[in-house]
Amino acid sequence: ARSSASTMLRLRGVISVVSLSRRYATSPGPHALVFLEHRDGVIDSGSLSAVTAAHSLGGRVTGLIVGGPEQVPKVVETAKKLKSVSTVLHCTSPQYSSPVSETVSPLLERLLSSNSPYTHVVSAHSSSAKSLLPRVAAKLDLPAVSDITSLEHDTSSNATTFTRPIYAGNAIATVRAPSNIPIKFFTVRSTAFAAAQGDEGGQAQDEALDVVEVADSPTQHVKTDLTKSDRPELGVASRVVSGGRALKNAETFNATLEPLADVLGAAIGASRAAVDAGYADNSLQVGQTGKVVAPELYMALGISGAIQHLAGMKDSKLIVAVNKDPDAPIFQVADVGLVADLYDVVPELVEKLKQ
Amino acid sequence: MRPSAARLLNILVPIKRTVDYAVKIRVNPDQTGIDLNVKHSMNPFDEIAVEEAVRLREKLKDEIKSIKVVTIGPPKSSETLRTALAMGADSAVHVELPDSAPAPEPLGVAKALRAVIAREKEKGGVDLVIMGKQAIDDDAGQTGQILAGLMDWAQATFASKVVLDVGKKEATVTREIDGGLEELRCRLPLVVTTDLRLNEPRYASLPNIMKAKKKPIEKLTPADLGIDLTPRLETLKVEEPPKRVGGGKVANVDELIAKLKEAGITAAKA
Q1: Which residues of chain B make contact with A349, given a CB cutoff of 8 A?
Q2: Which residues of A touch B268 (CB under 8 A)?
Q3: Alpha-carbon gap: A66 to the closest alpha carbon of chain B (Å)
Q4: Does A288 sit within 8 Å of B136, measured CB to CB?
Q5: Residue A283 CA to chain centroid, in angstroms?
Q6: Do the beta carbons of residue A99 and residue A128 sit within 8 Å?
Q7: Hey, of A160, A163, A219, which one would you mutate to test binding to chain B, going by the most B CBs within 10 A of its CB?
Q8: Pairwise CB contact (< 8 Å): A320 & B24
Q9: How far is the CA of A271 from the CAs of A179, A334, B126, B180, B266, in angstroms?
Q10: pLDDT tens digits for A25-67?
Q11: Does A147 touch chain B (CB under 8 A)?
């Protein structure tokens, strides 16, 4: 008799839990749409960081690939293997071979229109994605959050809280997007989130989307000139050798830094002063408005360490600085500082490292 | 022969008063923001935008009908407008916010700009908006793209070169992208956001500063424009980043190599 009474009590407990959950319907979990950028059939590392960030919201992740017929198939195959992605949407058209924001935005607007299942729209903080996402958000009358370094989603309140750097990273703001923002747009700082991994066995579903034709785009793509290099890419390299204004000219910049970058297997970076003076291409600029890097090793050679430069490299694991000026601000963040002429130091360093 | 009225361009340059780029900011003790009792200046990217508008007029002369600057900010922002007028803008609009108002968001600012552009319709409208790619305080980098989206205009972000063809009503813009450079051809009306290397802004000369005092600044409130600038995102707190303290100095290359070795850094395998 006692056992059936306690069974009744337990059953009653179960029943009331069931009716509670029917009365207080929880909001559905997050469903993030991640814009996956790609080049030559390879998904951009920044987009893989965006996948990780999207996954940490705690719900579903759908990838979106947009491109020309030569590009899309290979990228879709890679994307389907990403562990945290459950669906890969793709849209193929010559219109997207050299995409501009004006021709891609209408597709996203249609995907995100009423009855869309997506709660978040995510991308890397890349030059193309950060040109596109705010335009799409504007069309939907929604705000966007740029360059986030962390996030936390609370399903019960349907609010997402982010951190992001402000004032060139000299302050960190915690920003909350409450539930009355139905779709939360954000771009992700790649150095803050590890690249999502693939799994050979992994197989997400894929779905082809109809292109949204933009008959008369006000903007036409004319050409793209990418700096070609055999070196590791600056944004993801684990070692960076960076030169400043002290490097005199382009020939000296390359002649001095290349042997050191070679022996260390490093990417080459530059300060704004060096780029402005024409010593290096703009794609090598490290700083508040250039690339933000966080490698294992960052060597700053002949770089004074202005606030705006520090913003782009102060999260590096080990910072080494060589500068003739003992008061250069770079020494305030460098783990290892050497006050010396870089033209003496670098060749000696290259020689001795080779031994 | 004078160009026909249809080919005269009106340029609008939105600008922002921000903490000066050289200031070492301090987070305030209650973690609500930073200490704002410091030097303020025009956002450097907006200076570049004003400069570009003035250079376009120097190049295209009468084909640029007007250069108007606009700011959305507290009363002190009018100083920033005066600087732009001294650099060569013709007139200004100040959408004035009370000092106590929370900082508007990019979406709010873009809506204000849209309303300002609508008011310009009677005077021939706006053909080209040139603005900074980001403000160095919030580093959001969105307002230009949002404005282009709201207006359904062409957009060209991170411009390092702008070539305007007034007759064809189009611009060829070179932009700095992650891997190098990209060139776009855009029909007007167009929003261009400026990058560092577009130009080097001039210092206003004293005669121009004096002349600027007589140039008109129209004052408006958000209510005049029918907009609500209440932010939709909530800033919960502002903190210092993890502190990075400098390590010691080494005396020579041998000591440097020893430190690298300690950190596990040696020559890469060939």
Answers
A1: 253, 256-257
A2: 239, 263-266
A3: 18
A4: yes
A5: 16
A6: yes
A7: A219
A8: no
A9: 41, 16, 37, 16, 25
A10: 455 799 999 999 999 999 999 999 999 999 999 999 999 999 9
A11: yes
The residue whose two tokens read 């552009």 is: B117
DSSP E strands, A7-86: 31-35, 38-39, 42-43, 60-67
pLDDT in tens, A270-325: 999 999 999 999 999 999 989 999 999 999 999 999 999 999 999 999 999 999 99
The count of CB pairs under 8 A between chains A and B is 255
A345 and B138 in contact by Cβ < 8 A? no
3-state helix, strand, coil in chain B (%, to 5): 30, 30, 40
Residue that has been written with the tokens 């019960």 in this structure: A156
Q: Identify which of A147, A171, A263 has the shortest CB distance to residue B238.
A: A171
Taking an 8 Å cut-off on Cβ atoms, the answer to whether B25 and A218 are in contact is no
Contact A152, A217 (CB under 8 A): no
A residues 226-265 lying closer than 8 A (beta carbon) to B: 226-227, 235, 239, 263-265
State the pairing for strand pair B170-177/A38-39: unpaired
Nearest by CB to residue A170, choosing from B25, B140, B234, is: B25
Task: Say which of A137, A171, A263 has its CB closest to residue B27.
Answer: A171
Q: Which helix (H) or strand (E) holds A108?
A: helix A101-111
Q: Are A146 and B141 within 8 A, CB to CB?
A: yes
pLDDT of the residue at A165:
97
DSSP state string for B188-238: SSEEEEE-GGG--PPPPPHHHHHHHTTS-EEEE-HHHHT-----SSEEEEE
Q: What percent of chain B has pLDDT over 90?
A: 91
**Which residues in A286-310 are b (16+ Cβ under 10 Å) and which e?**
bbbbbbbbbbebbbbbbbbbbbbbb
Answer whether A344's CB lies under 8 Å from B257's CB.
no
Cα B15 vs. chain centroid, distance in angstroms?
Answer: 5
- What residues have CB less than 8 Å from B54, skipping those under 6 apart? B67, B87, B88, B89, B202
Three-state SS at B57: helix
Average pLDDT of span A130-153: 98
From the list A134, A180, A275, the residue facing B149 with the nearest CB is A134
Q: Please state, in angstroms and rounded to a whole number, the distance separating the CA atoms of residues A30 and A60.
A: 6
Q: Can you read off the two tokens belonging to residue A101?
A: 């924001």
Residue pointed to by tokens 């903080």: A125
* Whole-complex ipTM: 0.95
Q: Which helix (H) or strand (E) holds A162?
A: strand A159-166
Are residues A78 and A107 in contact, defined by beta-carbon separation less than 8 angstroms? no
Cβ pair B16, B132 in contact under 8 A: yes
- Cβ <8 Å between B177 and A337: no
pTM for the complete prediction?
0.91
**Closest Cα in chain A to B187:** A218
Q: What is the pLDDT of residue A10?
A: 47
Q: Is the pLDDT of residue B5 over 70?
A: no
Residue of B nearest to A277 (CA): B197
CB distance B146–A138 less than 8 Å?
A: yes
pLDDT in tens, B7-46: 799 999 999 999 999 999 999 999 999 999 999 999 999 9
Q: What share of chain A is helix, strand, coil (3-state, %, to 5)?
A: 35, 30, 40
Using alpha carbons, select from B90, B87, B85, B152 the residue that is nearest to residue B117.
Answer: B152
